[in-house]
Amino acid sequence: KIVKTEATYAIQVNGKLRDTIVMPIDATQETVVEAAKTSVAVQRHLTGEPKKVIFVPKKLVNFVV
Known about the structure:
The chain has two helices and four strands. By secondary structure, it is an alpha+beta fold. A hairpin with a 2-residue loop joins strand 1 (6-13) and strand 2 (16-24).
């Protein structure tokens, strides 16, 4: 049997894919969002704090600016 230990998250800014990151399957929402904010490809599109953060466990992080 194969057990997944990592999940790939799509990172979007205003609904457009900017990057992907691989995180442990048991990572918390705060950990994943902070890792997404540190991505160079995402930082270019973020100006200040996002208005809203949409988080779908084990799939997606979307920043609305």
